[in-house]
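Record 1 of the preview.
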Amino acid sequence: MKWKKEQYLELEDYILSIPKFTKKNTTDQTKAFFNRLGRPGSKSKIIHVAGTNGKGSVCAYLNAILTEAGYTVGMFTSPHLVSMQERIRVQGIPVSKEEFVHAFTQVQMQIAACQTTNQIYQPTFFELLFFMAMILFEEKNPDYIILETGMGGRLDATNVIDTPVLSIITEIGLDHTQFLGETIEKIAFEKAGIIKSHIPVVVMNKRQEATEVICRQAEWMHAACYQVSNDRITILRKEDKSIDFSYHSKYYEYSGLKIMTTALYQVENASIAIEAIEILWKDHLPQDYQDVLRAGLQSMKWEGRMEEIAEDVYLDGAHNEDGIKALVQTIRERKEKKNVLLFAVVKDKDYRKMVKTLLEEDLFERIYITTISNERALWTEELADVFRQYTSREIFLFEDSDKAYSKCLEEKQPEERIYVAGSLYLAGRIKAIEWRNGNDKF
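->
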């Protein structure tokens, strides 16, 4: 079928019908198809980012700083909240529907060519989108390409890239354990699979057992390993919509830094980006280096990460235990208003630990539980039973997330803040509602 711009929504549905969690192609098969495409994007400097939490935010901070410095930047991230176009960006702007369809067509042509030579190759959902991104980046030829892995690293489609200029591994946590292993060490090993010979790597040193695995792999690959840790970060001031902080790297002291968010976890992600930029530019630091850094950090906006989508309504993509811990830390620090929670979760997450973490402190005046239109969704009554184990607060159940959000807004008091969390699918659904109300960017 030949796709046209007008058929974009049908194309999205078609791509979404490709199973996301089925057997992947082997790395050799994926690499062979990437070679068949001509290894698009290889002329750009590539930054490869893996980890459990914070990958997308680190990518966004890097993109903002590099753009501020005058470079052109392509960025491939996942998942998307509303439109698949969000996954492929140039200068922070999602590609157009026309470009998206064009890239898909290019990949399909090569798939068809494989079939005529009996070298059948069918990309997975993630592989397809990665190939599309690289085709568009090849055409636009940005100075830098920032690639976020999917859920892994060693076997990830993005790992067909042989010579990035830098590898980054963010916080490691227990997520996707059925695919990556049931211990921090095993997951760290999978993430460390992106480390390449003699290519420097930046790692968030938050769990020593993970850092040891990553640094061992870096040593094996003769890759310089730079650690970012919280003892190098100082929070200077927290305001209603921003955080001031300083960061001390091995060589420089960065003070007077500001990020436009209330999410404390973003200070860690911003610090990872600072360390990465310092390594990238170490031999040719521009004279206004720290000014560029400050401006880039302050300009960064990343959807679905403690994002204020309406007045006192915050969308956070926390969807695992570590993400929920970070969310709770931020809410705990914001004491000037009362809190309301809208929550949904998928059943293959460790949702019992997520709920326990959320409710260990009595932070929420009201709790609204809903579900999402996804085969992985956990039903509301089953989730509510878990909530009732940890709170005596009244819980309101909605099978329709749109109605749940509408009820939250209807009952919201001026002294309250609403937090939407638990699932990126829920975040995307609520984001779409606000876009339909006049904030549609795509």
